Amino acid sequence: MHPNLLLNISVRYWQDFQDTLARAMNANVYIFDANGDPFSRFSLPAELCQEVNKGRELRNEKCIDFYRSACGSTEDKDMLTCPYGLKLCAYRLGSYAQKIGYLIVAPAGHTTLMEREEEIAFITKAHNVYRTINEVFNAILERNLLGLRRLELNSIYEISRLMTSIVELDRVLELITNSLIIIYQADLCFVGLREGDKIRVAQGKGVRGNLLIGKEWPLVHPLIERIFSKVEPSSLSIEELKVLPGFTGTDAAPGTEIMVYPLWTALGIVGLLGIAAPVSLGDNGSKNLQIYINFAAVALANATLIRRLEREAETDFLTGFLNRRVLRDVLATELQRAARYGYHLSVIFLDIDDFKVYNDTFGHLAGDVVLQKTAELIKNSIRTTDIACRYGGEEFIIVLPGTKGGDAAKVAERIRKSIEINPFPHRRITASLGVAQAKKNDSVDSLLARADQACYQAKERGKNYLYLDPS
Amino acid sequence: MSEIIEKRIGHYETLLREMWTASSKYLGTFSVNLLVERVVWEVSLEYKEIELLQYDQNGISCAKMAARLEENPDLPVEDMFMKFITRYVEILARLLGHERAEEIRKKLDEEFAGDLSASRGE
């Protein structure tokens, strides 16, 4: 959040109000923000300042430096003498908890306030000006703060509704990080999800947040352990976080504080969420943010669980390949794509020779090892764009987009050889493979039937053989 | 509505609609509406009239604002819209990264003859 956001008021309107007040009180007024930078202009022409600055605006560097330094050392109120001899009253605006800026009240005319009575009258007048301006500022601040809280609550309400209806993990991650950056004007926001014994950053936005994506932090890392040792958020400086991979390249301003929230649900650790500490959060703001984080944790837990179930439903547990049900959808899509763009498509049907005998002789556990090893050999022989699937007990299908039958046969031969020479436990293992290239108007069933038939032909020719469908 | 007012508002309405469409392509309509709500609130601290901006899942409309401008032609529309656009693009850069936000800004800038550069004081 912009540090002066809560004081975001029209300077033009403010200047009109300030000038009217200054004329009514016959005192010169000007205001500096919390950093000591000029917020408004002189309300009345100051003779001495005019001599120095040739105008009404505060432009003289010497004056600016003086005010900045004076503002920095003003705790509550102070009596000052400017470098050109003007006596001034300085006040700190805002509350002890929230510093808004500084007010300088000067006599409207050139006077050294030598007379005691004159000085007392001026101080009384200055104090009245201070009280009025401080009240107005506090009212503006309160109004703006209420507006911000209303915005936060509306957003949380909308997001909580949406989050409970979205199950796609990517969308939930986008929604969470986008919303937090928008609501809190955060420079950085990231979400890490638990994957076994580590946290993996799944989304990062803001100042080089994308550099964090994919980084892994072990749960046993002392800093991560510290974060999960409590339910409240940890406030960590960017320097402290630099012990974690991904933060070394982050060029966030030194001293930037990151609030890191552990994400818990009844099922345990979901992950963590980091957000560059929003300015002016306050107690209510912190509670609102915590409510949001709680919703985020539940939404992430649901989406993660659903993604896992979806993956498990599509994947063969033993080999990690796609299962038979998904193969039909994948192959249908690839056939459509090949027909639309006019590229080749081939399929390899692989059957492990005499697998039943192996299973019956050496047991199912040994059979599982053969299946897993075969899957690994297939994976090592194909491209990342090829799709491997466990079709049945000891049957595998490999879909090769953009590949002619002859080239697919070369891949199949590579697989056959790698199985043949691999030292499986107990005895040698071989496989028979059939290859078929997709034809115009082929359906999933017709293409698979030809690949299956080619595999049958390979078996007929004595097993440990490769047969390319000639049609 | 006078032709000049209609033209002024129409110009900004087109610009905001383009911004809305370009950013919703990357962020989705919910996030874009949240972003608009955030920026409307910020700008409303200075210009209440920005609250007359209407926005929903289908986009942005300046119809109510145009009616208000008819009653108060002195409203500093340019300053108000430029503040809105500047803040919008600033937050957008955090969400999409500076490169993609700059892409959107440049595309809009070409279509709207330097309005956005002017808003950044270039």
TrEMBL record, chain A:
Transmembrane region(s): none
A Gene Ontology molecular function term of the record: diguanylate cyclase activity
SUPFAM superfamilies: GAF domain-like, Nucleotide cyclase
Signal peptide bounds: none
Coiled-coil ranges (or none): none
Ranges where the GGDEF domain occurs: 343-471
One Pfam family cited in the UniProt record for this chain: GGDEF
PANTHER family, alphabetized: DIGUANYLATE CYCLASE DGCM-RELATED (PTHR45138:SF9), REGULATORY COMPONENTS OF SENSORY TRANSDUCTION SYSTEM (PTHR45138)
Name of the molecule in the record: Diguanylate cyclase
TrEMBL record, chain B:
Source organism, top-level taxon: Bacteria
Protein name, UniProt field: Uncharacterized protein
